[in-house]
Write the structure tokens for this entry.
Amino acid sequence: MAPAFGLTPFRVKRWRSFWRLCRVSLLTLFGLSAGLIIAHALSQPVTLRVLMAAPDVPPWNAVMVKAFEAQNPGIRLQIVEGPNATNLIEDLYTSAFLLGDSPYDLINMDVIWTPKFAAAGWLVDLTDEFSQAELDAFSAPDVEGGKYQGRLYRLPIRSDAGMLYYRTDLLEKAGYQPPQTFEELIKISKDLQRKGWVRWGYLWQGRQYEGAAAMFVEVLKGFGGYWVNPDTLEVGLDQPAAIRAVEFLLGTIQDGVSPPGVTTYIEEDTRRIFQNGEAAFLRSWPYVWTLANADNSPIQGKLGIMPMIGSAGNEGGSCLGGWGLGISKTSRHRKEALQAIRFLTQGELQKQFILEAGYVPSRRDLFTESDIVAKYNYFPQFLEVIQRAVLRPPIAQYAQASDILQRYLSAALTNQMTAERAMQEAARETRLLLEAGRRRQVVGGRKEA
């Protein structure tokens, strides 16, 4: 009798064999497709993104990106061009972090951002990734500028520090050596002014902005004072040394050593006056050297540099600036980001970067490297400045603390408050700020427990 539906045992067997073959073929096809998809995905380069100010993008693309991608074909480095202003770059990074999934893998940080970003938990801890021997290749202040509460979150990529510029021709003509104290600076300034050789003695940045905080931390150090002790969170703004520091700056205006308008000046205002030959001394940053020695500069070849000085009996300090690289905690490519930091901070590439862009190095040996010194013969002097650099307080609430200082310092310098009253108020508000931060930490800790 024939089977149902007209299927003989022989046909049933062939039908089953056919479907087994189909299943095997389909599984093979799916396997091959999946393999091709995975292989394609693996063959696609990883892209690391980093945001930076527009003026920094051309030298980065010309040197850093080109060299990195040539040596790391599986990784692309994408520089996202941001605005020129540093504070706007910080705002963009902060906004990206607050959204919870930052598009940036590498974080290009100004030195004062490190504590804020680290305290917020936005950065990968790099402490165990770099040995002390590796860190010793960099200037010590630059390494410290990448730490928060003893942990490393940022590796320096280039340095910067405040310094004292002086007119070598005028000091030599008057028989003076470069001043070693504030008192000597004022004495020389007044003498050169009396002789009619300069209109102003000493220029500094007094507008209510971050530059004034950087300037003041140097004067504060020079009088033996401190702003905030990061270990104990003690505030020193109402101590006698801090009040003397403010009174010194006020005195330069009252005595006519500094112009009345100095309380509105930023770096470029002071640089133009100094470069025009109208002043004997200038507190500013390394960038001034190249501009003041340009062919069209009235003082070309007539200026010297030195670390910031202090009052009699106190050592001065130059405020540390500079930039470094960290890794975003939300990055999906931490391994590649760390690989990039190691490559971008190594000596030979840094040498090419410095020669191309003229930035101040963060690696100590590059300050005296023969090719670099042949092009920038003043770099060995910069090293002395960097090694005596002083940090602005590496605290999580630095931005708010700086705003407090700026407001009250400006009030004192424009005679709205006495120096003593202004510093007392600045200290009081800073203590309240830090205490609020402590309470938030305690509450946060209890929530986590």
Observations:
- The CA atoms of residues 54 and 195 lie 44 Å apart.
- The first strand starts at residue 46 and ends at 53.
